[in-house]
Structures are given as C-alpha cells and as structure tokens.
C-alpha cells in the first residue's frame, strides 16, 4: 500500500483511539452506568398494593462507578438521596470487583492514549520494529480491548450476580426492604463496549494497511525454510 494511504489509515486509527480515551474518561465520571426501579416490598405488603397502587411504591435508582442517586417511594411520595461508593458503600458491595473495574477503566484510558501516540508516530514519524512498529500497534490495541472486555465482564457480574442495585437500595434501611423491579445498563456501560469494539477495528485497520497479524509466518519464509531443510 502506498505511504500516503498508510498515513491516512494510521491517522484515522489514532483519532479513533483518542476518541475512546476521551469517551472512557467521560463515562467514568457519570452516573449513567445502571438505571432501574426499586420496589418497596415492605410498604407494598402492608397495604396489599397491586395494579396502579403499586406505582406508589416503585422508586428509581441510577449510579456510576463513584456515586449515584436513588428516589425512595414507600407510598408517601418520593424522597431523593445521593450516595457515594467511596467510602460509604465499600462494606456492603464486592469491593475488590468494584475497585478492579475502576483500575481497568484507568488502564483503558492510559493504553488508548498510548495507542494514539504510536498510531500518530507511525503515520508521521519513522518507526522501527518491536513496540514502535506494527507489532506495537497490535499490542496496544489488544491490551486496550482486553481492558474494555474485563470492565464489561466484571461490572456485569457485580450488578447481576452480586445484586448491586439491591444492596445499594437497602443500605442503612432499618424498617423497609427494597427489591429490584427493573434494571438495565445505561449509556456509559455501552460506551465502554463501543470503545472495545473500536480497538478491534483499529487492529483490522492495521491489517488493512498491509501489516500481518503477529505470530503469523509469511509464506515466503515457510517456502525458504522448507528448501533449506531439503538441502540437509
């Protein structure tokens, strides 16, 4: 492929990698990772609520990695309150998983920025092999994509398997018990998924630029090796 086209491809990949870093940083700071509704089970059972009456006992909850907001509905109107994960909720949530999610988000931002620098260096500089050349570009894209996948897996397990929303809703609740009524991942979670897919796209762009995937042997070398073996 001609050099100008390679520069364009690497520049596009660098811009995409930078967008992923900025998107991840924005996602980390928002409360739009999970949104849902919580049913005040105790209040609903006391009045035997059903149908339209049940709506008076369904509140909202939304949260991110550091803080969130919930609206309690126990039949007497909604009461909004703010909460933070650090340090308030660390005693009731799977802290090791949650901290790991935050660390992998940081790693994703760092490696996306590193990938941006190396893509631009390959586009406008004079790179050499190892970590500056195509092998390095594949490496940074792979690490960033792996971090994104780990974020999605760990956070999904924290929310679904460890019932994170329910634990938050019942935090410091002495007389009322809340159950998850509905729950869905929000914009920031899907932003991480898109960023992971973009790094896969970057790897395909590197291949499209004419560079083989790592650990693949060119056919010419295999033919030469076979000829040498026959000589001996």
Total domains = 1
Order of helices and strands: HEHEEEHHHHEHH
Which structural class is indicated by helix and strand composition? Answer: alpha+beta
- Per DSSP, the total helix count is 8
Strand content: 15-25%
Q: What is the CATH class name? A: Mainly Alpha
Say what the CATH topology is: Butyryl-CoA Dehydrogenase, subunit A, domain 3
Mean pLDDT: 85
Helical percent range? 55-70%
Terminal CA distance: 37 Å
Low-confidence stretches: 221-232
Count the E strands. 5
Identify the strand order in the major beta sheet: 4-3-2-1-5
Radius of gyration over all CA atoms, rounded: 25 Å
What is the 3D form?
elongated
Largest sheet: 5 strands, antiparallel
CATH architecture: Up-down Bundle
Describe this structure in words.
The protein has one domain: Butyryl-CoA Dehydrogenase, subunit A, domain 3 (Up-down Bundle). The protein is 59% helix and 15% strand. It has eight helices and five strands, in the order H-E-H-E-E-E-H-H-H-H-E-H-H. It has helices at residues 3-28, 41-47, 85-89, 95-124, 134-161, 164-169, 187-208, 219-231, and strands at residues 34-40, 58-63, 67-73, 78-84, 178-185. A five-stranded antiparallel β-sheet has the order 4-3-2-1-5. Strand 3 (67-73) and strand 4 form a beta hairpin. Helix 1 (3-28) runs antiparallel to helix 4 (95-124) and helix 1 runs antiparallel to helix 7.
């Amino acid at each position: 492929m001609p050099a100008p086209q390679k520069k364009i491809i690497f520049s596009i990949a660098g811009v995409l990698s930078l967008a992923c870093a900025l998107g991840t940083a924005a996602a980390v700071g928002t409360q739009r990772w999970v949104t849902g509704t919580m049913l005040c089970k105790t209040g609903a059972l006391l009045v035997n609520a059903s149908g339209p009456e049940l709506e008076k006992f369904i509140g909202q909850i939304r949260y991110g990695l550091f803080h969130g907001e919930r609206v309690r509905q126990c039949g007497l109107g909604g009461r909004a309150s703010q909460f933070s994960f650090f340090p308030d909720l660390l005693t009731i949530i799977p802290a090791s998983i949650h901290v790991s999610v935050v660390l992998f988000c940081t790693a994703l931002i760092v490696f996306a920025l590193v990938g941006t620098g190396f893509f631009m260096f390959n586009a406008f500089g004079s790179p050499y092999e190892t970590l500056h050349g195509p092998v390095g570009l594949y490496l940074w894209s792979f690490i960033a994509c792996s971090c994104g996948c780990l974020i999605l897996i760990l956070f999904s397990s924290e929310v679904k398997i460890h019932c994170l929303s329910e634990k938050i809703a019942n935090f410091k609740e002495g007389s009322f018990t809340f159950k998850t009524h509905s729950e869905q991942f929000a914009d920031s979670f899907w932003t991480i998924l898109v960023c992971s897919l973009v790094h896969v796209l970057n790897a395909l762009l590197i291949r499209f630029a004419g560079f083989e995937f790592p650990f693949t042997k060119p056919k010419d070398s295999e033919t030469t090796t076979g000829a040498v073996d026959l000589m001996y």
